[in-house]
Here is the input.
Amino acid sequence: MTGMLDDALMLEKIRAIAEDLSPRLIDIRRHLHAHPELSGHEHQTAAYAAGVLSSCGLPVQESVGRTGLVVELEGSGQDPRRLAVRTDMDALPIEERSDLAFASRQPGLMHACGHDVHTTVGLGTAMVFAELGVPLPGNVRFLFQPAEEISQGARWMVAAGVMEGVDAILGVHVFPTIPGGKVGIRYGALTAAADDIEVTIRGESGHGARPHEAIDAIWIAAQVITTLQQAISRTQNSLHPLVITFGQIKGGRAPNVIADQVTLSGTVRCLHPETYATVPDWIEHWVQNVCQTYGATYELNYRRGVPSVQNDIALTQIVQAAAESALGKDVIQTLLEPSLGAEDFSVYLEHAPGMMFRLGVGLEDQPNYPLHHPKFVVNERSLLTGVVTMAAAVYRYWV
Ligand code: NI
Here is the structure.
């Protein structure tokens, strides 16, 4: 790489800058943690992040995709490619019970999914390159997106054009079951596709004592639920997970009146692209068969949510090698299993290949609560690891 320091020196420099920034990163993260905002309302968060970026001399575009931010880091022109780095900024409607000195000051709102850490990693990475003073061979576009928790923010950002001219994208998400300061790596599927489903079954009302004169929508709804759960085990490839959860059921008017209508609402999760493509028709097939058999009609509303995050193999290799070179081989924790949770990072992957790594935030001597728990706490060692990993991966992308 002409005009650039050699690899080992460069990684050492990135790490040294990030180490110097560490106290500032902790302050930033604590400020964000104390001031959580709901999805789509990240006004103060975005203004604060924009202030941090501007103070480092970085040009910030505000109000992109509603409350998102974009920062363009121009390269030397040696490589025409553009790499995007995406983080998210929103919090959750959860009352924090962590007892931290910098706990949420907003009643009923909490950074319980670590997006305060993600935003800090994005800011820290941009700060490292601002400090480095040597242009990278190619261009980097930092994306600070709103509304990940409602699976909308990435779509707003993409609609605003942030993926135009992007060749690859990197992302990060914290994980409390990985020790603080470690980096979780997975090749291929990382998170599941998550779609919404609503099935309305219509029968015919009647007297509870004379079911033969009616068509019982509750009984038929029970058949639909049972049939779908059994059909997964008998007709779907067992190596390609599929989860259908009906978390809501509505129907009936009185204990002694046969229900003429039942609505089932649920979520559909899968990992394999073939399952994703075929599952809406597969569900309809069973719903139609059951309803026809028992004389009911139905309405099926299948709404696509977000696709599965599939980590690109070459980019995953880059991130893993960069983290190992900058932080040592021990930093990597290979993730054997994907998650059936969802991440709207996948929406960007419809436009360019990408890689999301898991950032370990587990504490050593304290209980670790899961993501979205009111007592969720992160190990702040992860801030340095996250920034060094992201910055090293960005640097290594061009090599
Ligand atoms: Ni999250």
User: Anything to note?
Assistant: The longest helix spans residues 7-34. Residues 208 and 256 are 5 Å apart (CA to CA).
